[in-house]
Design goal:
The strands form four sheets. A six-stranded mixed sheet has the order 6-7-8-9-11-10, sandwiched between helices. A five-stranded parallel sheet has the order 2-1-3-4-5. It has 437 residues and is α/β, with parallel strands linked by helices. Helix 1 (12-24) packs parallel to helix 4 (118-128), helix 4 (118-128) packs antiparallel against helix 5 (135-149) and helix 4 packs across helix 6. The model has no long low-confidence stretch (mean pLDDT 94). It has helices spanning 12-24, 41-47, 79-82, 118-128, 135-149, 159-170, 175-182, 188-200, 225-236, 266-271, 291-305, 312-315, 329-339, 359-367, 392-402, 422-432; strands spanning 2-5, 28-30, 66-70, 91-95, 109-111, 202-206, 209-217, 240-247, 252-259, 276-277, 281-287, 323-324, 343-347, 353-358, 406-410, 416-421. The protein has three domains: 2-182, inorganic pyrophosphatase (n-terminal core) (Alpha-Beta Complex), CATH 3.90.1640.10; 188-305, Roll (Diaminopimelate Epimerase, Chain A, domain 1), CATH 3.10.310.30; 313-429, Roll (CBS-domain). The radius of gyration is 29 Å and the shape is elongated. The chain is built from 16 helices and 16 strands. Helix 3 links the parallel strand 3 and strand 4 (91-95). 37% of the residues lie in helices and 19% in strands. Bound molecules: manganese (II) ion.
């Protein structure tokens, strides 16, 4: 017999991969993990007949010739199946999108590419063979692809993920159904906790970062708390969120943390307490401590260990080309054209910022045939300036609030130190984002 299985606690990418294996290699039977990830249970329950799964216990009497393992290459994550494989020396083929160097399954032949989803590699194989899928099969596979790529927006996404998604859509995948499977908050107790969290979350500014924190007491563990924390994160959009759940009955405190900034490395932070995960998502369970006690200690630890947030002075352009108040509009216009800028700060005779002149201001002068008038007659006088210590959040707020694209950064004497433009801000945003797990 030939069999295929994925990692324990099967998620949607794992299920989607298995379904494509069944289509690509019809002489392989799929084996079901004893555990299905809470986020994948709805999909599994509605489509279980499309998998025609064996249970691991059904392998006991079988002689296994070949095995395909999907979505993992780590032995501990497939141990539950091997415990039931007897009197066999199977060939093992691994199809995985994780780091194949971590593979510790002896004698296995590993293949795969670092695509956002494992479904993508198998989807590309199916495309290559001109294989047709039923709309239901395409829906299952696309749900897996979307789940692992955050709907094609995570940084792990490659062009192949889009190609495989396009193929699955061609095969009739239903985006409406996929969307419903991706909804992670489905249980009543999740919704209850979600509402409670919105009442207790607080934003603290720690080393310039907007850090959301909450401490909530729960009667007992509930499933899918991660999804609830992520929902709050989505709505509140802090730099990081530390959600503490105290469960007195079990004498435990659970800390679930999420970060949107590369500077806040949760895996590193939580290691001190024996927890971990990824840079952007990590958790830890503490026993025999009260919630309030651990909460206070952890916040003090954050205060002492977070790296300071990026400030305007860290990203500003320092060599700023400026215009003097007594230049004529004509001279200023030629100057802007020469330096290829749409505007520049204007300095008075003492070198302090007194205004800002943009191409639009010059247009007004041109229409009034006043190109020989001094700049100070047409410049914008109420310039929004700032000191260099403002955070990126404040920079963003100033751009939107005042509809401006430049923020001159000045010292207390009004002298120009630099300027923050949309370009500076976007370059920062592009590189500071935290990588998803
Ligand atoms: Mn995966």
């Amino acid at each position: 017999m030939n069999i295929a299985f994925g990692h324990s606690n099967m998620d949607m990418d794992c299920l989607g991969s298995l379904l494509l294996v069944k289509k690509l290699f019809p002489d392989f039977r799929l084996v079901k993990s004893n555990q299905i990830h809470p986020a994948a249970r709805k999909l599994y329950n509605l489509y279980r007949e499309y998998f025609d799964f064996l249970s691991p216990a059904e392998l006991e009497q079988e002689h296994i010739e070949e095995i395909i393992i999907v979505d993992t290459c780590v032995f501990s994550r497939v141990k539950e199946y091997f415990n039931h494989i007897k009197h066999s020396d199977p060939l093992i083929r691994i199809i995985d999108h994780h780091n194949l160097e971590e593979c510790d399954i002896l004698g296995a032949r590993a293949e795969g590419r670092p695509f956002g989803a494992n479904v993508t590699y198998l989807g590309k194989l199916a495309m290559g063979r001109g294989l047709s899928l039923l709309p239901e099969e395409a829906t299952i596979a696309l749900a897996g692809l979307y789940a692992d790529t955050g709907r094609l927006i995570y940084e792990n996404v490659r062009r192949e993920d889009f190609e495989a998604a396009a193929y699955l859509l061609d095969m009739g995948a239903s985006l409406k159904l996929v969307k419903s499977f991706l909804e992670s908050i489905i249980e009543d107790d999740q919704i209850l906790v979600l509402n409670q969290l919105f009442l207790v979350v607080k934003t603290r500014i720690i080393q310039g970062h907007a850090v959301l924190v909450s401490l909530l007491e729960l009667e007992d563990n509930i499933n899918g708390l991660n999804a609830v924390v992520e929902k709050v994160m989505d709505v509140e959009n802090p730099d990081a969120y530390f959600a503490f759940f105290a469960i007195p009955k079990r004498r435990t405190v659970l800390l679930i943390a999420r970060s949107q900034k590369a500077k806040i490395d949760l895996h590193a932070l939580l290691q001190r307490y024996g927890g971990g995960g990824h840079q952007a998502a990590a958790s830890v369970k503490i026993t025999n401590r009260s919630g309030g006690d651990f909460f206070d200690e952890f916040l003090a630890y954050l205060e002492a260990s977070l790296k300071p947030a990026t400030r305007a002075q860290d990203i500003m352009t320092r060599r700023v080309l400026t215009i003097r108040e007594n230049m004529t509009l004509m001279e200023a216009s030629r100057f802007l054209e020469e330096i290829d800028h749409t505007g520049a700060p204007v300095l008075d005779s003492r070198g302090a910022v007194s205004g800002f002149l943009s191409l639009r201001d010059i247009m007004k002068g041109r229409r009034a045939s006043q190109m020989h008038a001094p700049v100070k007659a047409y410049m914008t006088r109420n310039v929004v300036t700032s000191d260099g210590a403002i955070t990126m959040r404040e920079v963003e707020r100033l751009f939107y609030k005042h509809h401006i694209s430049h923020i001159p950064i000045i010292n207390p004497r009004g002298e120009l130190l630099g300027i923050v433009t949309h370009g500076d801000y976007l370059a920062y945003k592009k590189h500071q984002a935290a990588s998803p797990p």
